[in-house]
User: What shape does this take?
Amino acid sequence: MSSTDDNGGPERVEPGFLPTATMAPPAPAPAAAAAPEWAASLEQLGREMLRERRSERRWRVFFRLMWLLLGAFVIAVILTSRIAGTSPSAAHTALIEVRGEIAADGEASAENLVAALKTAFEDVGAQAVVLRINSPGGSPVQAGIVNDEIKRLKALHRKPVYAVVEEMCASGAYYIAVAADEIYVDKASLVGSIGVLMDGFGFTEAMRKLGVERRLLTAGENKGMLDPFSPQNEKHQAYAKAMIDQIHQQFIAVVKEGRGQRLKETPDTFSGLFWNGEDAIRQGLADKRGNLDYVAREVVKAADIIDYTPKENVAERLAKRFGASVGAGAVRALREFAPLR
Assistant: This one.
C-alpha cells in the first residue's frame, strides 16, 4: 500500500500497520453482560432440586417407619391375644361354635374345631364344653376327625360335652353332635339327615345337540369315572353307590355308638330324613329342649361363658387383608432403612 507525501512522492507504509485514524475499538460481547443472570437461574434450579430430593427422602423414611410400626403392632396384638387366651381362668362354660358348612377350608374345619377343643379342655376353669351348632353338614372326613377328637379329649380330661342346636344340625353336623353327652334343641330346630350323597351334572345331551365332541384320554380304565362330559357307566355307578353306602354305614355306627339306648330306631331314622326338635327328642336323636344360657346356668352350673371358637381379631384381619403389602413393606424397610440413617 502507498500514499503521497508532502513532496509529492510516495509515502512508504510498513506492512502490518494501519493508520491510526482507521482503527475502531472492539464492540463489547453481549454474552458477557447476560452471564451473571444465567448463572443465578442455574443456581436457583439446583437449590430447588436439592430441596425436593431432601423432602422425598424424608417421606421415604417416614413411610418405612410407618410400615415397621404397623407390623410391630400387628405382631404384638396377635401375641397378646394368644397369651391371654391360654391363661388360667375362673370357673366357666367353654363355648365352641360349629357354624356353616363343615369343610377343610371353612370356619367349621376340623383344624379350627380341634384346636378350640384342645384349648377348652385344657383350661382348668372350663367346667364343661358346649358345642353350639348351626350347620347343614359337610365333609364326613372333617366331621369324623372332630368326633374322634371329642371322644379322646373327654376320656383324657373327664369333662362333659353338650351340644346345643340352633336352627339346624344336619348330616355332618349331627355326626359331630352325637359325640356329646347330651344334645339340646329348640322345638323348631332341624335335626337328622343321617345319610350320604354324591352329586354332579351330566352334559352329554347338551353336547350332542351343540355338536361338541368329548375327547378323553386316560391311563387306567376307571380313571375317567363319573366324568360329567361322558355317558354314564353302570359299572362306575355301582362302584360309587357301594362307596357311599359304606360311608353311610360308618355314619350309622357313629350315631348308634353316641346315642346308645336313647335312640328309638325306625325305618326312617337313617334314611336321610330330618325332623324338628320335638320329633328329634321323641325319636332319641336329641335329649331335651334348651339353649346355651340354659345349659350353662342349669346344667353346667357355670353361668359365665367363654368363647373358644377361633376368630380373627382386628389385627389378624388387617394382616390378612393387607398381608402382602405389609410384608413387602416391612422387608423393604428393613433392607433399605440402614443406608438412609
In short: Residues 36-80+320-340 form one domain. The chain is about 50% helix and 15% strand.
